Each structure stands twice: as structure tokens, then as C-alpha cells.
Amino acid sequence: MRLRLHRRAALAALAALGGALGLAAAPAAAQPASIAVRDDRGVEHRFDQPPRRIVTLLPSLTESVWALGGGPKLVGVDRYSNWPAALSALPRLGGLEDARIEAIAALKPDVVLASTSARSLDRLEALGLRVLRLKSETHADVRRTLGLLAQLLGTPDEGERLWSKLEREMDLAARRVPVPLAGQRVYFEIGGGPYAAGTSSFIGQTLARLGLRNVVPAELGPFPKLNPEFVVRAQPDIVMGVQREQAGMAQRPGWGALAAIRDGRRCGFETPQYEMLIRPGPRLGEAAGLIADCLVRLGGK
User: Fold this and answer.
1) Cis status of the peptide bond prior to 84, with omega within 30 of 0
2) Using an 8 Å Cβ cutoff, are 47 and 119 in contact?
3) Which fold, 35-155?
4) Cα dist. 23→17, 26, 27, 28, 219 in Å?
5) Backbone angles phi, psi at 47, to 5 degrees
6) How far is Cα 91 from Cα 227, in angstroms, rounded to an integer?
7) What is the DSSP annotation of 153-183?
8) What pTM was estimated for this model as a whole?
9) Class assignment of domain 177-298?
């Protein structure tokens, strides 16, 4: 997914090593003879063995590889990947529009994981590198991506196991939402606007899981650019976005009259929390919990 943030403040190396001591050594887990995965362009990629050197060029993909146990295989990441903190030692390789092609090639990755919108990476493929293009705009996309990456890492069952964990976390978050807030209409702003999370986006789907309604209809797409007057006309019950923009919202034309602004019915998230919310990856459940935390606070107003 490519989010065109107005102010981009974007954004896995724990691995489980198993082994047992006994009178006889336990047999090693068999690796698949070959791995075949199809990316979201429909291109099939075949590997004789799980990749040992991985470059990720999107924070959500970095976090997904990490959460699936592939952290030690990461050899480089995009400039916005900042979770977990252990990633700080890895080379930074640019972003969607300015990927450092020569630096990536010099790392000799077995595979590069990137967004379907990363057109600048065509040069990598021309150099003979494998580039998997993946899309993560919806919950279904996230589930599919986790399954594909788990298969790529040689641990195919881990993708569905991780998704089941996220489902449980989202369900728990939904149970904490105060009953009086059920059905409240929400505007979730991306960065400082004018983009928003629409009903069809993974953020919009999380809001729906929490029993909320989105003022941005599905037909506008997952992350539409909105006319500045849209929110004034929509009259949301709750406004959500990055904390640094909250103070200035009342100064926007017409926004001072919004009940959500006037009555403080806002969820402003500090940058690390906000980045979690806008990344379609293995922290979806935790992100739902953050929204539920704010709704619990608002429930007392």
C-alpha cells in the first residue's frame, strides 16, 4: 500500500531457534524442496530454498517479516521502517519513489519485498533481482500477505497462526468499546490531510470491527484525497488522527463549528502509535486496542 501522507512520518531480529538435547539428536525439520509464491501482480516466483537475504522497502512488510520470525534474514530496509528498535542497525535504502538501487543490488538480496506501486524498482528486476510486489490495503490483503511471507520463509503455518492472533486481539478490543459509542461516525485523517482512511481500507475495516461507522464511503476508495469542506459537511461524531495536527484543527475553515472539535471528541495519537495505526501488518490487533483505549476515554464524556 502506498499512502501519500501529507507529512510522512512513516514508519522485524527475534527468531525462535529450536533444539532439544537427548540420548539421540532430534531430526532436523525438513525444508521444502522448492517454494513457489505469486505476488499481487500475478507474477510467480520460485525459490529452491527459503531466502536467506531479504530487503524490505515498506514498513508493514518489514514488520511482517520480523513478526514471522524472519528478522535475522533482513539485510536492509526502507528509511521509514523503525519497529522494532533492533532494525536501527540495518542499512537504509530509501523509499517508494527514491529507492537506492545500487545500494540494494550491492547487498545481493535473494528477494526484495515492495509495494505494487513501487515503479522505481523495475531497474532491480532488470539487474536480475527478484522483486515481490505486494498490496496491503484491506484486512484480506494483510492476511494473504502474511500467508505468502510465511510460505516464503519456509514456515507456512505461521501466517495463519499470526492472523488468528490478530483476530483475537481485534475481538478483545471491540468488547471494550463503550456501548453508547456503537455506531458513532468517525473521520480518520491521514497525516495532516487532505487524505483520509475510507471504509474499504484496513483502517476503515478496523473501525467497523469496533462497531463504528466511517464518514468516508467505500466508493471513494481506501485512501481518498478529500475536498477540505468534506469533513464539515460530513459532521463526524469523532475525529481521529496524528496528535500534532489536533491543536490546529479548530482553525481550519468551518471546523471550529464541528461538535467533535468543539466538545473534544477526538483521538489524537502520538507519532509511534499513529504509525502503528497506518501500517497494515502484524500490529493490527494492537492498533485496534489503541483506538479502543481512546473510545473508553471518550465514553466518559
Assistant:
1) yes
2) no
3) Rossmann fold (3.40.50)
4) 20, 9, 12, 15, 64
5) -130, 135
6) 39
7) TT-THHHHHHHHHHHHHHHHHHHHS-GGGTT
8) 0.87
9) alpha beta
